[in-house]
Amino acid sequence: IKITSRTKSMTQEITITLPDGSQKQAQSGVTGAEIAGMIGAGLAKAAIAFEVNGEQRDLSDTVLEDSNISIFTVDSDEGLEIMRHTVAAQVLARAIKNLYPDAKLAIGPTIDDGFYYDFLSNKTVSIDDLPKIEKEMEKIVASKQPINKTIHSKEDAIKGFADLDESYKVKIIEDSDQESDFQIYNQGDSGFIDLCRGPHLPSLDKVGSFKLTKISGAYWKGDSNNEMLTRVYGTAWKNDKDLKKYLTLLEEAEKRDHRKLAKEMDLFHLQEEAPGMVFWHPKGWSIYVALQNYIRKKQIANGYDEINTPLVVDRKLWEASGHWDKYRENMFITEIDEEHANEKRVNALKPMNCPCHVQIYNHGLKSYRDLPVRLAEFGSCHRYEASGTMHGLMRVRGFTQDDGHIFCTEDQIESETAAFISLLSSIYADLGFDTFDIKLSTRPEVRVGSDEVWDKAEHALESAIKKLDMPFTVEEGGGAFYGPKLDFVLTDAIGREWQCGTFQADFNLPERLDAEYVGEDGLKHKPVMMHRAILGSFERFLGVLIENYAGKLPLWLAPIQIVFMTVTDEVTDYASGLKDQCDALGLRAELDLRNEKIGYKIREHSNAKVPLMAVIGKEEMGSNTISIRNLRENKTDTYSIEEAMKLLVDSSAAPS
Length: 656
Prior knowledge:
The chain has 656 residues and is α+β, with helices and mostly antiparallel strands.
C-alpha cells in the first residue's frame, strides 16, 4: 500500500493507494486501525498491527507523512511473531506478577516458534508450576481487555518502574541511549504495566492458542557474573489446530533427537574437557567413514582432486585473506615461542580452508587451458562458538567440512554452477532427500571488496541459476563477507528445514592472495574462486541424517549391518561361521551369544537401530538357512546362506 500526501485548504490530506490502484482519502494523523477500516471491514477485524516504512507499529499509532504501509494479521509471519510477543510480554508477564507478586520482570522476547520470559522471584518456580501459570494466562486472555500504550520520557519511565520496584526495567531504561519515547503498555484497568518496544495486539481477545513448554535458569544479560533468573518458555499459534500440530512435531523431534539416539546406538559423546568437540565411538566413526568414502568417490568421479592442508597457519595468511579483521573473534589463536626468536609467533587454527586452497592453486603458474581447477578437502576446522549456542552435533567448535574450491574463468561460472548442482542433487537423492530449496544470499553489511566487485559477483551467480531454470528466493544481506552465495535447504522426514550445501562466488580472495592464470591473450588474469560444500559440516549433516531416519539408517551407512543372535548354545559354531562369512565379504556384522532370552536380545538390538537381525536356532542350523528380521520393514524372511550373503552384499553397497 503506497501512501502519498497533498495539502488542501491548510489541511494535509493523505492519499492511500491500494494494490488494485484504487485510492482513498484521509487526513494526516490517521491511525493504523483507521487505515485497515478504510480498506475493508474484514481487514479491520483481522488487523493486529501495521508497518510504516519498514518499522512495525501498534494499530493505535498515527501516520503523519508520506509512507509505505503494510497491515498485519495473525495469518502472516510478522503477525504471528507479534502475537507471540504479546503472549510473552503481556500475558505471561502479567500471570507471573499475579502469581508471584515479589517477581521482578526482566525481558520477554520471541524466539523460533515461541517465546520466553525472564524474571527473579524469591519463590522457587519449577516445571510443575507451568500448568498453574498457564491457567492464570488463560484467565487473563478471557478478560478480553484492550492493550493500550503510553509514551514517556526517560526520567518519567525510570521513576514509574522504580516506584514499582522493577529494577530490571530501570536498568534497561538507564542503559538506553534514548532520552524519550519509552513505550509502556497496560491492559485495561488491570493495573499491570510493562516496558516494551512493541508492537502488541490491540486487545487480549486476539490471542491465539499457547502452551508453556519448559523452564530453565538464565543469567541476566547472559553474563555468569550476574544473578540467575528463572526463564519460562512457551509457544503460541493462530489456533488449537496449529498448536496441536506443532506439539506433535515436538514430540516426534524429541524421539528423533540425535543426542538421545547417539546414546542408544553408542555413536559418540561430548564432555566438558573439550567443549564443542566430538568423541566418536567405533560405531559412530564407522558411519562417518562410510559417508566420507562415498563423498570422496563421487567427487573424484566429478573431476575434483583431493588435497589436505595444515590445521595451524600463521596469522600473516589470515591477515592477507581478510579473516583476521573480519572473523578473528571466532578463531582459536595460538602463540608459539620459536627457538631463538625475539618474539612469539602468532598462529590460528583454521576456521575455514579457502586461503590454504589458494596456496595450493598458486603453486605453479596456471594457464587458461588448466581451468577449471577443482580442489576438494575433508578439512578439519575450528571456530569459537558461544557455549550457550552449542547443540550436540548440530553446532560444534571442531568440525570437518566436505570443502571444495573451483578456480575458473567468469565464462565458466554458469557451467560450473550447473555441474555442482547436478552433483549435489545426486548425493542428496542417495541420502534420502529428493527435493531442496535454493536461496541466493546477497552482500552483507560487513564485507570485503568494492561494490563494483560485488555487483559483478551477484550478477554472475544470479545469471547462472536463472539459466538453469530452477526456482530460488533472494536473502538480502545473507552472503559471506567475501561474496554472494547459493544456499541449499533440505526438508527432513518431519518437515524441518536444514541449510547444508552452499555455492559461493568469490572475486575478492583471488585478488587478495595473488591467484592468477595466463589467459589466451598471454596476459595474467584473476580467476573466479567458487567455494562449495555439499554436506557442509560432516558433524551437523550426520546429526541431520540420524534425525531424518530416526536412527534407522540405510544399510550402507548403518554401523552394524546385521547381528546374529543365538537361541541356544548348540548353534554357536553355526552362528559364528555366518559371522565369519560376513567379515570376509566386508560386511559389518555382530555376534550375540549371550545367555539371554531371544525377545530381550531383539528389543536391545532394535533400540540400537541394527537394521537386520538374524535369529539362529536349531531349525536354521538344520536347514542351513538364515531367518532375517528387517527393522525398517518390520518383517522376517528366511533365506539360504548363499541367498542371504548375496542379498547382504548387494543391499549394503554404497550408492554409485
